[in-house]
Amino acid sequence: MGKVIAVAGKGGTGKTTTACLVTRYLTKTKYSPILAVDADPNSNLGETMGIVIEKTVGDIRENFMKDPQGLPPGMDKINYLELLMNQVLIERKEFDLLVMGRQEGTGCYCMVNNILNRFSEQLSKNYKYLVVDNEAGMEHLSRRTSGQVDMLLMVTDYSLRGLRALKRIHDMLGSLKLHIQSMGIIVTRAPETLNDAFMKEVEEIGIPILGIVPDDALLLDYDMEQKSLMDLPEEASSVMAIKTMMDKIMPV
Ligand SMILES: Nc1ncnc2c1ncn2[C@@H]1O[C@H](COP(=O)(O)OP(=O)(O)O)[C@@H](O)[C@H]1O
Ligand SMILES: [Mg+2]
Q1: Closest C-alpha residue for ligand 1 atom 17
Q2: Going by CA atoms, what residue is nearest to atom 14 of ligand 1?
Q3: pLDDT band at 126, cuts 50/70/90?
Q4: What pLDDT sits at residue 219?
């Protein structure tokens, strides 16, 4: 299985932006092939990458459950679901993207989930790196994959409230079935020097700060103009900050 870089943190702090810029960094280096996974039910990773999403894994699950016996002739459930999953996988020259979409409703989804999980596990073997954009909690990740996370990037904005939310997520990690190799904090919209009160709480949490991303006005411009963050200039302050961080943490 490829190495998993997962992004977690409170909503609105810059998780999706980070996932996108980390994917972008990997495409520019020797770390391909790469699979970006949007595991936030409120999916918008594709949007930041300039990709229009038509179907998600959740859509497949829902459609399949409406008529579980309605299989095309000569196909069993496993073959059929795998065929559908292949249609959801978006393939680009530099990376692929899989959007998980909404979670299951009520009812028994075990069988279909098992098949989809098995497919995801198989799929992840085809990549060197997986970048996973998560919902605020990490429940998704522990349910859907082997639970292996090689690098967990915990994103917070430059506020004590953000940091405390991050601490709550950190405290909860132990109760999830995850195997996390290493983790670090990314502070977004941050000034050059972080103030003492902020640093004191960081020390109490006990996780190192890996990256500091300044407030980058270009991110807002690109959002408003619906431009892909993959097309940001190399000199954009957010792109450079993620590069500095990744250069430090990636194996050479
Ligand atoms: N470093 C930054 N500088 C300026 N704006 C940012 C920065 N990081 C994120 N944003 C903006 O904040 C908003 C939320 O970011 P997003 O990555 O979608 O957060 P999340 O995925 O955690 O909800 C977006 O409009 C994004 O452009
Ligand atoms: Mg997001």
Answers
A1: 14
A2: 12
A3: very high
A4: 98
137 Cα: distance to centroid of ligand 1 (angstroms): 17
What number does CATH give the domain 3-249? 3.40.50.300
pLDDT in tens, 91-120: 999 999 999 998 777 667 788 888 888 888
- CA–centroid distance, 141 to ligand 2, in Å, is 15
Residue with tokens 């919902």: 135
pTM: predicted TM-score of the whole model, two decimal places: 0.94
| Ligand nearest, relative to CA of residue 224 | 1
Note the ligand closest to the C-alpha atom of 17: 1
Tell me how far the alpha carbon of residue 78 lies from the centroid of ligand 1, in angstroms. 38
pLDDT digits (tens, 9 = 90+) for 166-225: 999 999 888 888 899 999 999 999 999 999 999 999 999 999 999 999 999 999 999 999
> Looking at ligand 1, which atom is closest to the CA of residue 17?
17
Ligand with an atom nearest the CA of residue 215: 1
Which protein residues touch ligand 1 with a CB less than 6 Å away?
A: 9, 11-17, 188-189, 213, 215-216, 219-220, 223, 238
